């Protein structure tokens, strides 16, 4: 495994790999890697000859009042995780390398970015789409691996690839969970032991909602109320910021569940806001 610090160094290695006929997988991350990230790197390493992992805490996707300066970091441990999971190149650029002059070019993905996380964090997805566009330009023709935990982010990136013709095949990968069902996230590190246990209700409520839907309940309102009521039984978990029941491809809100449905929620548990989601397929 080779660590690179600049875009030019990374291009050189990837140009060489492609000249040798080798395929490239890309796993963009913000570091503080956990088993969920490792699963993306492992999948990429299994499906491509070369895997480029990037570790970059992207300032553009944090609002002024968010946790950029104390976002958790542990580069040494991350490099060991990358190596064990099969990464070939790890790009760890500085902010100056990624944004050598104040950036005035931004990528915005309308509509898909406006609901859910976008409504809570209005500048977030432009920051994500812009850095991912840059990372796609660094990675070049490749398969790119993203977790389904950030389901809205994944839908936005898929749409950006179509709209802007990036030569990238986006691969969405299943959520990796703790034993209590909590979706793995770098921000889980902020949870106290009691909050960690309580946060298990997020996934439990989603699984219970899927059972309800599979049992024939098609009203989004009833399913949403069921989830909110289950979450309310855990006093350490706040009232969810949203519980959205949407079409999995378009993220359009559904009143009646049909077809490929995704139930997506966000709730504050102590310091972090946690996200989770689940899919259910029903006859349309
Ligand atoms: O999901 C993340 O970790 C980030 O949003 C991403 C895609 C690496 C862009 O900074």
Order of strands side by side in the largest beta sheet?
A: 1-4-3-2-5-6
Overall CATH class of the largest domain = Alpha Beta
Question: How would you state the average pLDDT, rounded?
Answer: 97
User: How many strand units?
Assistant: 9
Integer count of domains: 2
**Helical run tally:** 10
Question: SS-based structural class?
Answer: alpha/beta
Describe how the helices and strands are arranged.
Layout: E1 2-4, H1 7-19, E2 24-29, H2 35-47, E3 50-55, H3 75-85, E4 89-91, H4 95-98, H5 116-120, H6 124-139, E5 142-147, H7 151-164, E6 168-173, H8 193-198, H9 200-214, H10 220-232, E7 242-247, E8 259-268, E9 273-282
Parallel strand pairs: 1-4, 2-3, 2-5, 3-4, 5-6
Antiparallel strand pairs: 7-8, 8-9
Bound molecules: pantoate.
Description:
This protein is an alpha/beta fold and 284 residues long. The chain folds into two domains: 2-173, HUPs (Rossmann fold), CATH 3.40.50.620; 186-282, Pantoate-beta-alanine ligase, C-terminal domain (Pantoate--beta-alanine Ligase, Chain: A,domain 2, 2-Layer Sandwich), CATH 3.30.1300. Helices cover 39% and strands 20% of the residues. The strands form two sheets. The protein has a six-stranded parallel β-sheet with strand order 1-4-3-2-5-6, sandwiched between helices. Strands 7-8-9 form a three-stranded antiparallel β-sheet, with helices on one face. Helix 2 links the parallel strand 2 (24-29) and strand 3. The protein is globular. Bound molecules: pantoate (PAF). Pantoate (PAF) binds at residues 28-30, 58, 61, 128, 131-132, 150, 153.
């Amino acid at each position: 495994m080779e660590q690179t610090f600049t875009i030019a160094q990374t291009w050189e290695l990837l140009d060489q790999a492609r000249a040798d006929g080798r395929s490239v997988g890309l796993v963009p991350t913000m570091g503080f890697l956990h088993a969920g990230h490792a699963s993306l790197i492992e999948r990429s390493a299994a499906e491509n000859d070369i895997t480029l992992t990037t570790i970059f805490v992207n300032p553009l996707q944090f609002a002024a009042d968010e946790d950029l300066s104390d976002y958790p970091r542990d580069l040494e441990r991350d490099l060991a995780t990358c190596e064990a999971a099969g990464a070939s190149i790890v790009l760890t650029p500085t902010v100056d390398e990624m944004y050598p002059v104040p950036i005035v070019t931004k990528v915005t993905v309308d509509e898909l970015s406006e609901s859910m996380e976008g409504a809570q964090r209005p500048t977030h997805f432009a920051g994500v789409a812009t850095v991912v566009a840059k990372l796609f330009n660094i990675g070049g023709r490749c398969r790119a691996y993203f977790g389904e935990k950030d389901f809205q982010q994944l839908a936005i990136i898929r749409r950006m690839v179509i709209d802007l013709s990036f030569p990238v095949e986006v691969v969405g990968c299943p959520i990796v969970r703790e034993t209590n069902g909590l979706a793995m996230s770098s921000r889980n590190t902020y949870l106290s032991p009691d909050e960690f246990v309580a946060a298990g209700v997020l996934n439990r409520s989603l699984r219970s909602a899927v059972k309800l839907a599979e049992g024939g309940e098609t009203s989004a309102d009833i399913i949403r109320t069921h989830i909110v009521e289950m979450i309310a039984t855990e006093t350490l978990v706040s009232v969810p910021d949203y519980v959205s029941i949407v079409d999995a491809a378009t993220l359009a809100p559904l009143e009646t569940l049909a077809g490929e449905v995704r139930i997506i929620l966000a709730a504050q548990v102590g310091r972090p806001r946690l996200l989770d989601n689940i899919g259910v397929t029903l006859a349309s």
